[in-house]
User: What shape does this take?
Amino acid sequence: MTRKTAIDLHGLFADEQPDCASDEFVESVSALIRVAQRRRWLRRFGLALSFALLGWQFQGLAVDLSRVLLVQLVELEPGLAFEILAPINSIGALLSSLLLLVRGFHRRLLAG
Amino acid sequence: MPDLSKTAEPMVVGLARAGDEQAFTELVRRRQVLIRNLMQRLSGDRELARDLAQQVFLQAWRDIGKLRSPDKFSAWLKRIAVNTWNQHLRKHLNQKILDGDSALESPGLRRQPGMVVDLESALSTLPLNVRLCVVLAYHEGLSHREISTLTDFPLGTVKSHVKRGSDRLQSLLADYQGASND
Assistant: This one.
């Protein structure tokens, strides 16, 4: 059986570097970044425009929705009970509680 | 325009994180050889290595705000490079080929004088995941644990890949040396 001499792989990898620095490569990366920047700004502009248009279109709906969310679950006269129960005595509070419950249940399911 | 070529790297990274384009360009200038050579070793293709290196720097530019420690820029960049390489493989190949013994191996070594050609040819015969571990171990000088962290391969797999790859390289390069000495 022939015994082969061990080759210094670290040395071999270190000695031979296949490529060297070039300004052309740096410039090509800068050009790609400029294109990506332009796309990023266009995307942001598009999103902002979409939100503005949506907001304008659905302004009335948003106002109606906020009124519905503030409707009391139990009719109370202004006073101490009204002040204390105000944060939980509305359709919005009920929906928030339901969302929290669903989230907790979902997490427990995933953990289990 | 200030000259950043002599500024300490963590400072340049800090400027780049703050959105300074000139600072990021300086980082590309400093680290291009590291990334291009890593990609060249992994792909064995100069043009592909160049394209992948561009993607690495583009991704780094997108994510540099997420880099917490400027002094770990180099390791962070290598991780992006490994991810970019893996994404490239996932796009073009399947898992069988990544881990396979003989798939995608080159038909044979190019019998030309010069160690660069020979090392690249020998590397090209390694299965892709083995090649990744060998390049990170010998080209980048990383420990098995560092390679495991970088590639998300289990430590045992890394050790086995490096051992298998270096044995294969030793054998192929010794054969080549023997043949070229004849």
